[in-house]
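Worked example 2:
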Amino acid sequence: DQTHILVANWQYDIPSFRSGLSAPVTKNWQISGVASFATGTPLGINVLSATGADLLGGGGGADGQRVNLTCNPNLARSEKTVNQMFHTSCIAFAGRGDIGNAPKDAVRGPGRSNFDMALFRNFILGNEQRVLSFRWELYNVFNHTQFNSIDTTAIFNAATGQQVNPTFGQALGAWPARQMQFSMRLRF
């Protein structure tokens, strides 16, 4: 259930000078790209007991138990930070014998906006059968951080009901930074 996904691609022939010394250098260049935008995927809140106490009476610790939600834990995109991807204050310990009121997917993971581009040119060598292709590819062109995972495991002290996981609600990983590659290929 990814609410919104938009992917757009393009290719553009860069205009060249028609005459003069720079005409051979500026002709036959093309630029292409792919832009993708997606909202985050739904995530559940996992529950663990710091003491391993059997909270539901089935012998499995906190297995099957959910948290209690006291408010909507989802933050607006502009409010999310590395240290707080959702309102952890809305997550409460369900307690012994309580299965919790949280739905299966209580929060949304981080979304993604990404731009990949390529600049390339084909150089014709002699006849049409010999072509030298130059290509410069860039992934994550604007090199902005895009998180791909967050800590959704609440660890509670069963005696006090206090959440003790220091990274709960924080971003744990990110998609790769900008990457570039150059290539040249000769077709004959």
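The mean pLDDT is 88. The longest strand covers residues 112-124.
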